[in-house]
Design goal:
Elements (H helix, E strand, L loop, with lengths): L1 H13 L5 E4 L3 E7 L2 E6 L4 E4 L1 E4 L6 H7 L6 E13 L12 E6 L2 E7 L6 E9 L2 H4 L12 H19 L5 H9 L4 E7 L11 E3 L15 H19 L10 E5 L10 E5 L3 H7 L1
Parallel strand pairs: 5-11, 5-12
Antiparallel strand pairs: 1-13, 2-3, 3-4, 6-9, 6-10, 7-8, 8-9, 12-13
Helix pairs in contact: 4-5
């Protein structure tokens, strides 16, 4: 669902002449000076705007470099254990139309189709995992070069799932667990409450600013619904003082949902009408 939203937003941005989207940017620093904020990137480039929005997740470089370097993300002790499997590999009757939460004494196992074509089944469970178990592995995006370590981790995760749900009374669930091999671990992090989430010209959104419940899947979208009306009111109030055609907004957000969407920079220099329409 996240990738669908990203693609829809990109499609809308492509139809405008006042939104520039750049990929492959990594924030390394930033500085606020006078009426502007400048974001510096690892490749040597930079972006200048009147306002910087950091939507770059719980490990936010924007927070660590510009807003509050003292606030570190904390592991909750809980991980997602998940995988995907081709639906045509399952010979037992599939017991759900689109999605099922399969409850057991050892927890819950989510099974759902990844796409409307129902070609792939996404499987996920929540489990308590000791911090030492995740220190060298953080899912498919782990930079650990040791492939044998990743295979061993996947095997351990499969054993964990089998131990919890292997004796499920639903044949489909048992077969999914038996045939799934490429299990990945996604640790869940959060931030301490009541910490700094903005400066004069930099604003954090979503997981970068606060601990959003991992079950809600709201992330920065909830903050955006709140920020949008606030910006509209602000722009309307100051319209007699400001030339809105010169207003620029820099937004940094991670493309965590898909390898084709790396860390994303959106440099938005809209006219006042454009800002009202697209923020």
């Amino acid at each position: 669902m996240r990738i669908s939203l990203h693609l829809a937003m990109l499609a809308a941005a492509e139809k405008t002449c006042n939104i520039e989207v750049k990929f492959g940017k990594k924030v390394i620093d930033g500085i606020e000076s006078g009426e502007t904020v400048t974001i510096f990137f690892e490749d040597g480039s930079s972006a200048v705007g009147d306002l910087a929005l950091g939507c770059d997740g719980v490990h936010s470089p924007t927070r660590m470099r510009l807003v509050d370097p003292s606030t570190l993300s904390e592991y909750t002790g809980v991980c997602f254990i998940q995988t995907t499997i081709k639906a045509d590999r399952i010979t037992a009757p599939i017991h759900f139309e689109t999605t099922a939460m399969n409850r057991a004494r050892q927890g819950g196992l989510l099974t759902t189709y990844s796409h409307s074509t129902k070609e792939d089944i996404f499987v996920a469970a929540l489990a308590e995992v000791d911090a030492a178990e995740i220190s060298g592995d953080s899912g498919p995006r782990s930079r650990n070069p040791n492939r044998q370590h990743r295979r061993t981790t996947s095997e351990r995760l499969r054993d964990e799932i089998c131990g919890r749900f292997g004796d499920c009374a639903i044949p489909c669930v048992r077969e999914i667990i038996e045939k799934s091999t490429n299990w990945a671990l996604y640790p869940v992090y959060h931030l301490p409450p009541d910490r700094k989430w903005h400066t004069e010209r930099t604003l954090l959104l979503g997981d970068a600013a606060h601990a959003v419940c991992c079950f809600a899947s709201l992330n920065s979208h909830t903050d955006t619904w709140s920020l949008g009306p606030a910006l509209l009111t602000w722009i309307s109030f100051l319209s007699f003082l400001l030339d809105a055609s010169e207003r620029r907004i820099c937004g940094v957000c991670p493309g965590r949902c898909h390898p084709l969407l790396p860390h994303t920079l959106a440099v938005l220099p809209p006219t006042r009408q454009g800002l009202l329409r697209h923020i």
